User: Fold this.
Amino acid sequence: MNRRPVFLITMLCFGFAFFYIPILSMMVYSFNGSRLATVWGGFSTKWYVSLLSNRQVLKAAILSIEIAVLSATFATILGTMAGIAMARFKRFRGRTLFSGLVTAPLVMPEVITGIASLMLFILMAEYIGWPATRGFTTVTLAHITFSMVFVTTIVHSRLVQADEAIEEAAMDLGSRPWQVMKDITLPVISPAIMSGWLLAFTISLDDVVITNFTTGPGTTTLPILIWSKVKLGVTPDINALATITVVIVGIGVFIAGWLLNRAEKAREHDIQLAYQANQ
Amino acid sequence: MEAAHRSPGFRRWFNRRGWIKITIATPYVWLSLFFLLPFVIVIAMSFATRTPTAPPFSFGGDYPVMNTNHYARLIHDDLYVRAYLNSIGNATLATLMCLLIGYPMALGLTRVSRSWRNVLLMLVILPFWTSFLLRVYAWMGLMGTNSWFNKLLTGAYNWVMPADMALRYIPMMNTGFAVVLVTVYSYLPFMILPLYANLEKLDLSLNEAAMDLGSRPFQVFRDVTLPLSLPGIIAGSLLVFIPASGELIIPSLVGSSSRPMIGRVISDEFASARDWPMASAVAVALLLLLVGPLMAYTYFEGKSLEKKKAEGES
Assistant:
């Protein structure tokens, strides 16, 4: 393969143009002075001012973050447990069903999950009385359920690739299985657990369809607010909101990638030192 | 609870078998309650009868065991049949387009230098972390009748076509074309990432061997790379096809109401018509249609993890 793959490089350029031109265009138009969202009317930051002084938007954003933090935390605990169960416990009753339950929500069309969860919550309110009304609780429960399987996938694939010999060595040295889990396995998969939390957080923060079905009056998350505005057409303040989101996410992904990379390098370095010390 | 933690009996149970049981049972019970049970409810609901009560359904009445009218309506009512065909058609077209664009991109990613590769991979993942809704919205801005993008395309069109066929703008919003375009845009990373993960592991010495034996580059691609990347193609296609066929946001924002899509029909039956049994029947029918692809995905996912495990052990 000495020849430069011209066709492939061209496709990469084309693909990235396709990815980023709409986003860049949206960012440029967020500084548009005109009321008409698609006609350029000079540079202005007025949409940012009007957005940041909009109490409704700020309230929705805070609510979204609250739900995302809470649901990501529970999703990470449950998802990590499921990942460990799938990777380390080879045989238990109902394992086939379990493996179906942790993969199906990954690809299930959201509309179906949405109406299914809504019916469950309505019937629960009817027959058990909890959760009494739809809102914060039901949205959080639904978010935990569909984001935990993403954590499971990450933790599972990390565990499957991890070297089980270290765990076996600890067992041979007299550790009990629970000690091995606590002292070795969990620290080994901690980067995976961290990225799982981040993924669950963003999935929850971003969700429209399932939230739309499971929310009630008074609980308006940011995506639901945007959804109800965007249905009416393109508006300049949403351009500003989108730009802020993209910038924050971009910085976040960059920092997270850098931190994970650094942690990974430090770990490799430690392992090398350990090997050298043994020789 | 505190007392239980301190009691030596609980401690011993937890340290021996208890933690394993808790690790399995907690997510199991959770998923059964909040994921499996709702589907059982949907299936049961599809055989119920709509009533003007709250909640708006009942069992029994005129239909002692189950009411299968909703399934009969699915076949006889033109709306549902059209919605299914539109959804499946759009999802298939979008999957093929994603494959055509995503495959060369994934292959290209494996051929650039290491430092470039990390940057470019980050750029593939970045849109995935930003809001789905806002990415659809970005295209609403581009496709509008007096946007710069539409003007550019209109200019190009008018330049190519004879003067008497000139257009003032190209109608893109609220068309089937818009739905497919935005679906491809939104789901392309789901195609690229599994393909890249697969192509990255391929042994380049196989390509060299084929070259040495006289294959031309395209033959090498056709006879070596393409067959070996089949698992990646399958995983990527399922990850695009399944969610795309039930998509709600894209057809609601950029689609045409005269071309119904199944996700929107389910949502409308439920929210506007308040016909829970009918919405459930449509959802069950969509599920039945997707059962094949869903099981294929679960199966291949399990197999690739087993393979990873084998590689980890060797």
